[in-house]
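re: that chain from earlier
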Amino acid sequence: MAQDNPAIDMPGYLRVANEAAAHRATHRVSEADFIRMSREPGTVILDARSKEKYDELHVKGAMNLSFPDIAVSTLESAILDRGTRILIYCNNNFANADGPFPAKLATASLNLSTYIALYNYGYRHVYELAPLIDIGRSQLQFESR
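^ sequence. v structure.
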């Protein structure tokens, strides 16, 4: 029989995930709005993919905080102010770029887990790039390390 672990709370996670899903419904943006918002002062573009994939190719100006590294301490050092506007994107936003942006199952999209995590940590100004974009036709600028 499994033992309880007070550091792991599935019912709490599901409650927060449902709250985050309702919040997310009004925080998904078009490519044009993502670009416009990214140019406004105080906005952070967050790439939660692995450092390897981030280094291969990422949206210009994005900071990398790999999803497994999202924790109280890393968020406090990377994005101290919970009022900061954060723009997120993931593999499933870009088609025809399987090297740097390999597709995940739609239900396992990194945008979903990243949004829920940021919401759980108290960040309410998170905006998600909504569409699936052919990387060759994207208006976003990309760079590599």
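Residues 75 and 121 are 9 Å apart (CA to CA).
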